[in-house]
Give the backbone structure.
Amino acid sequence: MSNIKYSLASCPSCLSPERYVKSQKKDSPRVALMYIYPSKELLPVILPVIINAGSMHVALIYFFSPKCEDCLGVISFIQETAGNHPFVYVVKRNIHEKETQELRDRLNIAYKVPENERMVIPSVFLGSAIIGKNEIKKNLKKELHEVERLKKYVIGEDSVAITQD
């Protein structure tokens, strides 16, 4: 067993941000936050994951508005870049939908996003929060490479200890 541990919270009735986050739509995949603890000295890495039909994938959660030019200008970059990583599932969320706002609020708290950046779009949540078009274009590839390193703990290439909150 690896000494890397993660906690995957999955309590639908809990409202705290580190717990299970679910879309209100029927039959949609569950989005949960996984905390990976590389060592006792380091803070955990937060990784959104999609749980669907018994399988788990890393989630790249992309917040946008259909009327936002920067959002429309960066989506093809996100899809192309993430497309090189088959273990990543891109989740697009329109910021104007109520359940999307709830998800964004929970992620803002979990990722400790500063108040003045909490509703900025476009934005991506992966291993870290990437806020704004320029930051996405600058940092997404690096973040995906870091997630590539951690993916074995998500999709089962290594054994891990799981704790439930």
The beta strands are 5-8, 30-37, 45-52, 55-64, 88-94, 123-125, 129-131, 161-163. The helical segments are 69-83, 98-110, 133-150, 152-155. The chain is about 30% helix and 30% strand.
